[in-house]
Amino acid sequence: MTTAVQTTVRPTRFRVLIAVMLFITVVINYLDRSNLSIAMPAIAGELDLSKAEQGLLLSAFGWTYAALQLPGGWLVDKIPPRLLYPACLILWSLATFFMGVIGGFVALIALRLMVGVFEAPAYPINSKIATVWFPERERATAIGFYTSGQFIGLALLTPVLSWLQAMLSWHWVFIATGLVGILWAVLWYAKYREPRESRANEAEVELIRSGGGLVDLARERQERARITKADLATVLGSRKLWGIYFGQFCLTSTLWFFLTWFPTYLVEYREMDYIKSGFLASLPFIAALVGVLASGVLSDFLVRRGVSLGAARKGPIITGLLLSTVMVGAGFTDSTALVIVILSVAFFGNGLASITWSLVSALAPRRLLGLTGGMFNFIGNLSSIATPIVIGLIVTDDSFAPGFAYMTVITVAGILSYVFLVGKVERVAERSEMVVS
């Protein structure tokens, strides 16, 4: 009788809570990336900043965020998410908070650089947790769900932050988001656990493990305490990995346009007030939210139906990038309503394509998940430097069309990268393994 009961134990669904926790963290993460764009028109007016100076300030986050992806990935491979994530959350939230307390152009740049430093490990941590906690057939859905946090947070909370700025001042945009991050860091530390240390029962742990989830990754001793030449040769010597690296740069270029210049575009080029622009600015993020949720569900559905992993993962990405190219049309119309429609379609496509971390989970060498994720995020987020600066330099006081043209060219390059470089989706062997074989 006991044996019969044991064999019918249903798996718990503790991994659902993990997905929700990642979702909330991503919401906070992206609010702290985008809050400067909301406040930028007010800051530029108060500090009398030129377009080039605005582009420099908007890009400051990206300099340190991109530069520290490899050290961040190394930390992810060495420090458990339960400790590393709340530490990073508190530190970047404090830097955000003080952006609302300390004024001045130089001080804002310095604090923005610090936000980039401490957010650097965030997405490699997300990728590692998804690889540990979810079987392959659920992973894209989980990644799509928590990635949607970057869009739903911006869609719903951009109007709130715009209202807060209009009622009080731009300083409170940073103070409020900083305080929320500190509170969530405490809750993360209290609730997050690895699969075998959590309330997930053995049936759920076995379901994850048998489905390709690396549930015991945290228990595996890492023999080397530093990044070796062989490690770097592995993550830099694969055509497949370079395909997703460059593809990510192209994909996130569109995202960084919306995170930096989009509110300024609506206020200065479309002459909208803060409240109206806040609500209109939310529409493309809502479209992106729909895209990213549909992408993860569709991709995992295709995997369960027997479609190859490569087609199931790359199909939504390439389709989404194709849709994003319609952005070029925004430079050829004077209708604000039509511009919002065009940009919503483009950002829906960006959301549809944003399950790219599922390819990191599928391609990265088992022992180098953090390092591969760090390299992926490093090259991808060079766009956080390039996009604000390039757009600030090429747009004029009268026309934003050159900015839209630049974004379209970059998107087409991303499509070519996924088509011609990535190839068959399978885990890349470490250089030492290739030598042995």
UniProtKB/TrEMBL annotation:
GO MF entry, a single one: transmembrane transporter activity
Stored InterPro entries: MFS, MFS_dom, MFS_Na/Anion_cotransporter, MFS_trans_sf, Sugar_P_transporter
Subcellular locations according to the entry: Cell membrane
Pfam family, one: MFS_1
Boundaries of every Major facilitator superfamily (MFS) profile domain copy: 18-426
Keywords from the named record: Membrane, Transmembrane, Transmembrane helix
Protein source organism: Amycolatopsis thailandensis
Annotated protein name in UniProt: MFS transporter
DNA damage found in the keyword field: no
Gene3D superfamilies, alphabetized: MFS general substrate transporter like domains
Topological relation to the membrane, as annotated: Multi-pass membrane protein
Keyword Iron assigned: no
Transmembrane segments: 12-31, 83-111, 143-164, 170-190, 241-259, 279-303, 315-332, 338-363, 375-395, 401-421
Any single GO CC term annotated in Swiss-Prot or TrEMBL for this entry: plasma membrane
Source species, domain of life: Bacteria
